[in-house]
Amino acid sequence: MSAASSLLSEEQFLCSICLDVFTDPVSIPCGHNFCKNCITQHWDVNAPCQCPMCKTRFHRRPVLHVNTFISEMAAQFRKSAQMKASSFPHQRCAKPGEVPCDVCTGTKLKALKSCLVCLVSYCETHLEPHQRIKNLRRHKLIDPVENLEGRMCKKHDRLLELFCKTDHMFVCQFCTETDHKLHHFVPLKEECEEKKAELGKTEAFIRQMIQERQLKIQEIKHSVELSKEDADREIADSVRVFTALMQSVERGQAELTDMIEKKQKTTEKKAEDFIKELEQEISELMKRTTEMKRLSRTEDHLHLLQSFPSLNTPPHTKDWTEVSVHRSSYEGTVRRAVAQLEETLSKEMEKLLEAELKRVQQYAVDVTLDPDIAQTYLILSDDGKQVNHGDVEVNLPHNPERFSPCCCVLGKQSFSSGRFYYEVQVKGKTDWDLGVARGSINRKGQITASLENGFWSIWLRNGNEYTALAGPRVLLSLKSKPQKVGVFVDYEEGLVSFYDVDAAALIYSFTGCTFTEKLYPYFSPGLNRGAKNSTPLIISPVNHTD
């Protein structure tokens, strides 16, 4: 039998319906052979009863008997196919999630290709006829996919080859002549090319998102490094101070160091959380990019179009534009810790304050006065750097945000995060107010510059009465009369500090503040008082010292 089979072509023992070696082959009256089950199912579905090959019609369904000769020959070819399969060691059984061969009996091998004409998936062995037989080579092969029946039009039982742009659905050729006759439709390949172009844009957008997040990670890491440097420097200062003290203050040193380290740990923990979240987003975005690249390379047009809506939609991610890790502020911490040792620490406090002032001066900003909201008796210089009270009211345009009647003005610049510092010359004046204020403060009527009303400020009255407008007010006892006042704000830390610049001394600090809106520099030159207080407040450039 094997000698005879070697003289015959395998094509002679392939069922033209299932395209596999005969199983229980039967011969019908016209002489053509089919698997018994294949021809039976064919006649059950199709009418009239005719040969699938030559279309010969039969008035009665022929009685089918297994052709033993062909059955024996087919068995030989099937055995030969199994031996050939064993010669391909790289072929393996289909695992869960992989497309199995529809032809394999018993153990299913992994499919290598799916045929859109046969609607069958084939392993390498059963795919061989499609690579050798002329008619089968014309069939459309794609990477293996499941649910090939879903690629057929349910209404016309034809392959879905077109995309209706009017109804946004897949249609067959017959659909274009019936329900979709007047619609705009294109081949799946053309629609795929368009969607691939859109995927390319989306992929580029996601790559940009990845790059932005990678840059944000670098920014956060850099902020942590700077914060660590500040922490290290502050700890070093604290060690230098407390080692000069008696044994009784060693406990204070430990408490201060612990507080600084806790702040730094909080900063690092916050940064680690941000980085972890960013890295997770990057991982998800990279997965999305990999899937897009794989989908863009597929020849399976239907699968691409089915997957397109979910992949083309930008993933839900956090907006990181305004996210940052702010360096912890340590200004004044050592000073407050050693304030009880005033006599012993007086010289050390002077050194600390001088260093503190140098640090906050690094956050100097350019502040100019806003003439559109200045009270009408105030005289502002052309460069917006000076203001004093005049005796004559100036005719200015009405503005609901203008101060009236209080002689106040705000800076043009506003701040809603970070740190800023500016200096104001107050030399020669007997009255003034300085500080910061919320943008929503009341600007009409008599205004009390208090914390409750949105002001963090200090003032001078009668030439020698300095007061911090806290709740309650704090009378300040200063060693010298400031000629230039520095104002420093740390938004996140809730800190507003005032410095005597020339003496490198702290005047007052508002601590534990809660800022929820924009802050503006606040100025009041005080009333003229018959030219006794006519000297202007002058916003001065900051002289950075080494």
Brief characterization of the structure:
The protein is of the alpha+beta class. It has 3 domains: 84 residues, 2-Layer Sandwich (Herpes Virus-1), CATH 3.30.40.10; 141 residues; 179 residues, Jelly Rolls (Sandwich), CATH 2.60.120. The chain is 34% helix and 17% strand.
Structure characteristics:
Herpes Virus-1, Jelly Rolls, seven-stranded antiparallel beta sheet, disordered N terminus
Protein described:
The chain has 546 residues and is an alpha+beta fold. It has 3 domains: 1-84, Zinc/RING finger domain, C3HC4 (zinc finger) (Herpes Virus-1), CATH 3.30.40.10; 196-336; 362-540, SPRY domain (Jelly Rolls). The protein has 10 helices and 23 strands. It has a 7-stranded antiparallel β-sheet with strand order 9-10-23-13-19-20-21, with helices on one face. Strands 12-22-14-16-17-18 form a 6-stranded antiparallel β-sheet, with no helix packed on it. Strands 4-3-5 form a 3-stranded antiparallel β-sheet. A hairpin with a 4-residue loop joins β6 (162-164) and β7. α6 packs antiparallel against α7 (250-297) and α6 packs parallel to α8. It is elongated and about 130 Å long.
